[in-house]
Amino acid sequence: MKKIKVKDKEFIPFVSEHKIQRAVKQISQQVNQDMAGKVPLFLVILNGAFIFASDLLRKITVDCDITFVKLASYEGTSTTSTVKELIGLGEVVKDRTVIIVEDIVDTGITIDHVIQMLKKMEASDVKVAAMFFKPDAFQRDFHIHYKGMDIPPDFVVGYGLDYDGFGRNHPCLFRLV
Length: 177
Fold this sequence. Notes:
This protein has 177 residues and is α/β, with parallel strands linked by helices. The relative contact order is 0.23. A hairpin with a 2-residue loop joins strand 1 and strand 2 (9-15). The strands form 2 sheets. It has a 6-stranded mixed β-sheet with strand order 5-4-3-6-7-8. Helix 1 packs across helix 2 (50-57). It contains 3 helices and 10 strands. The chain is globular, with a radius of gyration of 16 Å.
């Protein structure tokens, strides 16, 4: 891996594609074990989680449903601390096990918003699957059931994560120089 430029910023290699795929495999194995005999609904948070969700769901062997919501809480390299619902949830989740699929949990504001929404819609069980977690930035109090890896609070791009919409297409993770 070599340094990349996304828009006006430079990023250096951080997490290899191999390490990411190994973490996805571990998450899928745990989900398959935990969900045996159940039919979970995977709720994918767009745009960032689409690559992680694609890799993860191809490894899921239990019967399942998949749906998407599109939320926004970032502008540039900073969180806005508010969640905008751009495309809402149209599925009935009452009495369902829902697994939220997210690319990264940093402050936790977005996922906390989704968890509260699902509880109001009477989901029987809500679990969180996140590829990356920034424990030093985390500001909420919920459990991440399926976690790929902890990373420091650096700004990162690649593997679905972006800077103003760019950089998502890289198969590995890069951090801001």
